[in-house]
Amino acid sequence: MKHILMLGTGGTIACKRSDAGLKPVITSEEILTYVPDSKRYCDIDSLQVFNIDSTNMQPRHWLAVARAIEEHYDRYDGFVICHGTDTMAYTAAALSYLVQDSPKPIVITGAQKPIDMENTDARTNLADSLFFASNDRAHGVNIVFDGKVIAGTRGKKERTKSYNAFSSINFPYIAAIQEDHILFYLDDKPECAQVKFYHEMSSGVVLLKLIPSMDASLLDYMAGHYDAVIIESFGVGGLPSYDSGDYYRAVGRWTALGKTVVMTTQVTNEGSNMSVYEVGKNIKQEFGLLESYDMTLEATVTKIMWILGQTKEPEEIRRLFYRTVNRDILWKS
Ligand SMILES: NC(=O)C[C@H](N)C(=O)O
């Protein structure tokens, strides 16, 4: 019998209705009473890390969850984190960087409807997660949602209301869970992996999403307040070159200050490739910008936060950024 620790962090799965709207108040202990059948294949303990709407999630919360896993790592065979869906993809990616190469499964799940409702996805998602976390072939950080297992760095919330809210972006699903069966599409548990925990994350990261006509003065403002900027540009990637935009000067200022500029795309699927068009190739070559290629935005943001928690040295930032962690980046220059 597997021994699983369920960590409650809040989200809709733990919500009750109130006059002020849905609010997470159901404890992790109470949540477990809704999945009594899971006791057939695992003993489950629960730990309430906090109980918040995931809209309020910050790097310190990711560090607290990682710390709780580290403290209990030796005593359990697997971990299931109940979490809000809104920022679940960020947390899954953040945990992929904070807890690397775990031979034990760390599953993140949640729901679109509270667990105490009659028509809810919460019970299935939680039962599937406990089932997956009890499987010998499961490992590392994954999202389990609506019968799909998604690598922790590849998840994205693509639907605000439907039960099939999450997709795996630019990467295959790891497995599908159907009733009492797990169909592994990727079955690659390493023979011997040694888990490694990290304890630092920087909040000095900002995102700039381009729209047509925007000028670059926001980048100047951001340079005074942040260590890294992720620019979500259009298509495969590029920066406007119209005079009033002045992006070249603003990006040059960022790099002259030794700060990090990462280029990514607003398009969800297929990733960036800045060397295709003149508007991308020139600026990348001139300033040596980082590029996220096939990474999700959530993975890009949390990876830079994790890296800046380890180093401020530009060459080391580049090396760590292009090193694959939990399947996050496959396409490199
Ligand atoms: N479905 C959900 O869990 C949404 C909720 N607002 C949260 O992310 O905490």
UniProtKB/TrEMBL annotation:
Parts of the chain that traverse the membrane: none
Positions of the L-asparaginase N-terminal domain: 3-186
Catalytic residues, chain numbering: 12, 85
SUPFAM superfamilies for the chain: Glutaminase/Asparaginase (SSF53774)
CDD domains assigned to the protein according to its UniProt record, in alphabetical order: L-asparaginase_I
Entry keyword set: Hydrolase
Binding of substrate, residues: 54, 85-86
Uppermost EC category: hydrolase
Pfam families: Asparaginase, Asparaginase_C
Domain Asparaginase/glutaminase C-terminal residues, every copy: 205-321
Record InterPro entries: AsnA_fam (IPR006033), Asp/glu_Ase-like_sf (IPR036152), Asparaginase/glutaminase-like (IPR006034), Asparaginase/glutaminase_AS1 (IPR020827), Asparaginase/glutaminase_AS2 (IPR027475), Asparaginase_C (IPR040919), L-asparaginase_C (IPR027473), L-asparaginase_I (IPR041725)
Hydrolase as UniProt keyword: yes
Any GO molecular function: asparaginase activity
EC number(s) reported in the record: 3.5.1.1
GO term, biological process aspect, one: amino acid metabolic process
Catalytic activity: L-asparagine + H2O = L-aspartate + NH4(+)
Alphabetical list of PANTHER family matching this protein: 60 KDA LYSOPHOSPHOLIPASE, L-ASPARAGINASE
Family: Belongs to the asparaginase 1 family.
Protein name (Swiss-Prot/TrEMBL): asparaginase
Organism of derivation: Enterocloster lavalensis
Lineage: Bacteria, Bacillati, Bacillota, Clostridia, Lachnospirales
